């Protein structure tokens, strides 16, 4: 692996690892937060199991449509998810969840197959990943306040 192909972000979220994992496992919740600010999602296939497919169209704020194809390659409840983005730009997303005193420490590592593509999208990917985690936090805040 070439270090120029890896994008890494992490943060501690005030939710249990199970709650964070479930925000990925539920198509209904995932669709509300996946992607950068201003984007929405139209899920077509969502098979949350190892080897399961996740296909969707991400719709940009300008209405542009971005088809996505993914495969869930590893799923460890409340612990780890590995998602293979199976179309251009090819990458693997590894999400690690670790229980800490004040919630869950989430590590998000995105590894692109091609160094040239990785460098071309770096300026977009780095802030987009942070926005994705901001949206995850807001989604969990919304969904969990009704369950306590």
Task: Write up what this structure looks like.
The chain has 148 residues and is an alpha+beta fold. It contains three helices and seven strands. The termini are far apart. The mean pLDDT is 94.
Structural class: alpha+beta
List the secondary-structure elements in sequence, H or E: EHHEEEEEEH
Number of strands: 7
Continuous helix count: 3
Report on the biggest sheet.
7 strands, antiparallel
Order of neighbouring strands in the sheet with most strands: 1-7-6-5-4-3-2
Summed up:
With 148 residues, this protein is an alpha+beta fold. The protein is 31% helix and 41% strand.
Features:
148 residues; 3 helices
SSE order and pairing:
Layout: E1 6-13, H1 17-25, H2 27-33, E2 40-46, E3 53-59, E4 65-76, E5 80-85, E6 91-100, E7 103-112, H3 115-144
Antiparallel strand pairs: 1-7, 2-3, 3-4, 4-5, 5-6, 6-7
Helix pairs in contact: 2-3
